[in-house]
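tool_call: predict_structure(chain=1)
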Amino acid sequence: MAKSRGTKTTEFRDVGVSTEDQKFYGACPHFKENKLNIHDMVDVWQTVYYQAAEKVPCFKILIRTLSTIERKLNAQKYGSFENKVFWDNCTLEIKSDTTAMKHFLQETSLDHGILLNVIIEFGNATKLVNEGPDQWFVQKNLLLMKDCSSGDVVVFARVPFLPRKDVIMEGLKLTSDSTSGKYTCVDPASSSRDKDMEFEIFSDMNEFF
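tool_result:
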């Protein structure tokens, strides 16, 4: 998320698709067909499950919409970082309790939920973190983020819900061919709960925001 996962390359791979679709695979080699309304991403979310070699901690994020005025102010305050950032297209901001860096999502012509990460780090100089794009998916109370370069997946649940395991597995069908992974906060199999319901388990959604 807002923490850099390192420098990424997104070189084109010949995957035997039509010329019309090649742009998606060039920018996102692990691209999956997807329809996303980015406004469905706006809410408070908490990590619940992940498919990645590196451990993903338990944390919350707030995704909020940026107004036109806010985007103009960001353009004045931060600039374009050598024409890498187009603030008119940075319609969402991610706030997290784990970092002080600014994290925005920039829409692209690629669509299909592929969004560029605009992560600004502060220190001796304000700089743009080198971070590749992610592909985002929403299914009811699940938000899934797929790393375009590595194919790693992080599953978030809409606060205050903890989804059943089968709900998570069904959601993963949107992003990958595998459902194997690890839980971040709570393993549903180890909790005492009504197996037919989602229930409130996360703390106050405004705790960090």
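agent: The domain at 19-186 is CATH 2.40.128 (Lipocalin). Proceeding to next step.
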